[in-house]
Amino acid sequence: MGQSNHKTGVLFVCLGNICRSPQAEGIFRKLVADAGLQDRFDIDSAGTGGWHAGQAPDWRTQAASERHGIPLPHVARQFQVGDFDRFDYILAMDRSNLRDIQALARTEADFNKVRLLREHDPLADVASVPDPYYGDGDGFERVFQICFAACRGLLRSLTTPHRRTPSGSSDLA
Question: Is the residue at 35 inside a domain?
């Protein structure tokens, strides 16, 4: 069919990269693997802050994911301006993360790559994935369910034959 070998880059971003974004990354990786599409995607996560860089995901995030059979081998890292070059879709967990990432955009194309993850969940009642860090264990399960619904919608939108690219032009998946 003449398709290029370019992998669609998908980056999930939260504040510290130990709760929401590694969970979304793990869920999306699992959905992509279950669909047999690993060769089509470059998937990662990052945080707008760097204070957890080098750490594993929060143990409560890991526990929630492992209950659903999803391991989280990710190591936290901070978002870098170069991520705009590597990733086609940069999905922020909340409006604060969205603004922080957009503030680093060098071009309009960079700026347009950044969206809220929950835009991909048609049943979402709010735009943000809540940060469970200072809450109890139930918050981590709730975040898992929110991320799962949004990641399922994201994969559907990225594998639909005529999807829209971040720049707004039509693209055949």
Answer: yes
Looking at residue 39, the DSSP 8-state letter turns out to be: G
20 is catalytic: yes
Q: Is 163 a catalytic residue?
A: no
**151 included as an active-site residue:** no
In a domain, 3, yes or no: no
Sign of the Cα pseudo-torsion (92, 10, 16, 106, in order): negative
Domains identified in the chain, total number: 1
- Strand-pairing partners, residue 78, are 47
Q: Which domain holds residue 98?
A: 8-172
Choice among 44, 131, 147, 151 that is catalytic: 131
The pTM of this model reads 0.90
What DSSP state is assigned to residue 44? E
pLDDT tens-digit readout, 144-172: 999 999 999 999 999 987 545 554 444 43
Could you give the CA distance from residue 163 to residue 24 in angstroms, rounded to a whole number?
Answer: 21
Domain with residue 31: its CATH number is: 3.40.50.2300
The catalytically annotated residue of 19, 20, 58, 83 is 20
